[in-house]
Design brief:
Length: 182
């Protein structure tokens, strides 16, 4: 069993992450294989190593933006590691103040993410974090929100990339890193 030092140094982290992500077939709808990260979050060694790796990918940054909802769980501790502020990127209608809103295409229909209009200082460097990159629409819309709010995207970092959905194609021109790609 690797200790936290070994994992933080990169030894076998990919395998540990893969071993702690559980496939749930046909959730939330038939044909979708949901990547459940709760076993990873419950393993303190892997959770700590993942947060350290996410935080170390594109520093230094002024803010870490987490995408609702599982992105919050990863981004908030990463922000603490970096001494940066945390900004929530939320689904439509959840933020109480004035917002920028960005709509994006889903396979059927559209979705919208929002950020507070005053979330960033001008030219803030922002690290965007989420758990899974699938078709890339959510991450693209989040990056667009950061730009519209006057800040820079230092990078987008994902725990897991589903490469067969080609999400990176929607993120052209942006620095993107996934800890694990399947
Ligand atoms: P997309 O916009 O298609 O890249 O979808 C990414 C967002 O949807 C992320 O916030 C993920 O949490 C969630 N997501 C998409 N597909 C999955 C999946 N197979 N398992 C878990 N979460 C997913």
């Amino acid at each position: 069993m690797a200790g936290p030092q070994d994992v933080a140094a990169g030894d076998g982290l990919t395998e540990l992450i893969q071993a702690r992500i559980r496939d749930i077939p046909d959730y939330p709808q038939p044909g979708v294989v949901f990547k459940d990260i709760t076993p990873l979050l419950a393993d303190s060694t892997v959770f700590n190593a993942v947060v350290a790796r996410l935080a170390g990918t594109y520093g230094p940054v002024d803010k870490v933006a987490g995408i609702e909802a599982r992105g919050f769980i990863l981004a908030a501790p990463a922000a603490c590691c970096l001494g940066a502020g945390f900004v929530p990127i939320r689904k439509k209608g959840k933020l109480p103040g004035a917002t920028f809103a960005q709509e994006y295409q889903l396979e059927y229909g559209t979705a919208t993410v929002e950020v507070h209009a005053d979330a960033f200082a001008p030219a803030d460097r922002v690290l965007i974090i989420d758990d899974v990159l699938a078709t890339g629409g959510t991450a693209r819309a989040s990056a667009d929100l950061v730009h519209r709010a006057g800040a820079q995207v230092a990078g987008i970092v994902l725990l897991l990339e589903l490469s067969f959905l080609h999400g990176r194609a929607r993120l052209a021109g942006l620095p993107v890193t996934a800890l694990v790609t399947v």
